[in-house]
Specification:
alpha+beta, four-stranded mixed sheet, two-stranded antiparallel sheet, 14 helices, 8% strand, globular
Length: 324
Amino acid sequence: MDPTRVDLSALPVVEVELSRLSSVCSPRTSGEDPDHVETLLSAEWELPPILVHRPTMRVVDGLHRLRAAQVRGDTRIQAKFIDGTESDAFVLAVEANIRHGLPLSLADRKRAAVQIIGTHPQWSDRRVASATGISAGTVADLRRRGGENGNEARIGRDGRIRPVDSSERRRLAADLIRNDPGLSLRQVAKQVGISPETVRDVRGRLERGESPTPNGSRRLRTKQHPLNLTEPDLGHALDRERLAVLEKLKADPTLRLSEVGRILLRMLTMHSMDGQEWERILKGVPPHLYGVVAGFARDHARVWAGFADHLENRATDLAAGVIA
């Protein structure tokens, strides 16, 4: 089974006894979130089926839904079964938990990437990055820290085998620059393993709309790169669980009754759009403003990423008793 090519929507739904299910080996090291369980308990709609690894009966996706069912006193729950190896099931669990519901923390995603690098060493950095929701440059760094310099060839997200050469490193640098435009030339060069001058050339090519590799096409055409709204970095449809969390935030008095909280809620609501709305906005940008708007979008993305890092760091410090 290729875990990145499983069509979960086509799997049949069955009812499973809760007593048969196991919740071990979850990528979520912090365990269940009681607030999220409460949100699911108060939901007025039918929750989607959980995902279960048939050979081990481990819950791949839906631990909070399982807990909610246990709290309600249910004895059975709707589920979909997948087969394959435990390592492939873990990949599916990570993908499911970064794309909907309560997202995995950055630390959990990095730990998952390390595990996937170990079980799927032939996968490219971009393929691991796609599965874990972190940048390809971060995956490359984790791979080097683990002492794994990589094979002569790796399997990409499209299933094709490609050699790891300078062109691949240029593409990794391009991915890293797109994901975090604020990184310096030396930071990108260190993570990818090329010179700062090569990174400068890659960045210049991207700004001009060219391929990051010298032998690539002179200019990238828009039709070659249509907006893929299933990618985790841009506007895939928000599911009901995430919307339920947003509604709960709106009802939280610590946010609703403070000026800063109301600003935050407006910002979160503004960005909580589904893929169709992003597509409509994309088509509405005048061609002569593509570069300007793209620059603003990257700047705002960098600010949001920094904001998220600060919050996660504060949460870690709070758990360790550093923040009073």
